[in-house]
Specification:
By secondary structure, the protein is an all-alpha fold. The chain is built from four helices and no strands. The protein has one domain.
Length: 122
């Protein structure tokens, strides 16, 4: 269980660090850094989904656990959508950037809560 938490935490840290690195490179965005950031993000979502699915197979999750997992997934989708918009060369409203800058904190909180509720089953 602790290994799952460690991997999830490291993946989230790598997403945030690669995002900061990407934002500091300026426009045009570095294809290498952008691809790395996207792959780490996608890999993290897949890892978390597989982890939750396997735990759910062993013992079904209660509504609270499912709800926080769905919330986490929705927040990740919001990050993918806003990140995709920001990676284009078109001018994007400032609100999209603001959402993409705030949502990672919400993802870390919801992922932490989801993993706590799912792995430790209080």
């Amino acid at each position: 269980m602790n290994q799952k938490l460690l991997f999830a935490g490291l993946f989230l840290l790598f997403i945030i660090l690669s995002g900061i690195w990407l934002s500091r490179t300026g426009r045009p965005l570095s294809v290498l850094i952008l691809t790395l950031h996207k792959l780490i993000s996608l890999g993290t979502v897949v890892y978390l989904a597989i982890t939750v699915y396997r735990i759910h197979q062993v013992a079904p999750l209660n509504p609270l656990q499912l709800g926080i997992c769905v919330l986490t997934l929705v927040l990740f989708i919001a990050l993918f959508a806003t990140g995709g918009l920001l990676s284009t060369t078109k001018t994007i409203p400032a609100l999209v950037l603001t959402i993409h800058q705030i949502t990672p904190f919400l993802v870390v909180l919801s992922t932490s809560a989801a993993l706590y509720l799912v792995l430790f089953r209080p």
